[in-house]
Write the structure tokens for this entry.
Amino acid sequence: MVGRGKGDGGAVDDPSAEVLGEAAAVFGLLAAPPRLHIVWALTQGERDVSGLAERIGGALPAVSQHLTKLKLAGLVRSRREGRRVVYFVDDPDVVAVVRLLFDRLDARRGGRSAGAAADLRSFGA
């Protein structure tokens, strides 16, 4: 677990090897543009696989495979609504990280107002 160090001016301890491995696996999973697009779409609201395929412009079987990987990693969840399976992101931290990433990249490209870009820079962007 990552925490505050003692007697070192408040420096943060390094994460354990296990945490580093898990984080690398999650970032590796999100390194595929279709999977990142799926997670982004799900931060906007829940969808079924056909709605996701339409939204990201992917083939239904490929989107289904991506969703399976994201579910196994615990990044997305699903529930049945009759014959339909609806996917969603219910971890507010995942939503926050994905939104922050896209907001920062958008701000760097000039897509945000100067005030919003300045706010993001205050977080280290």
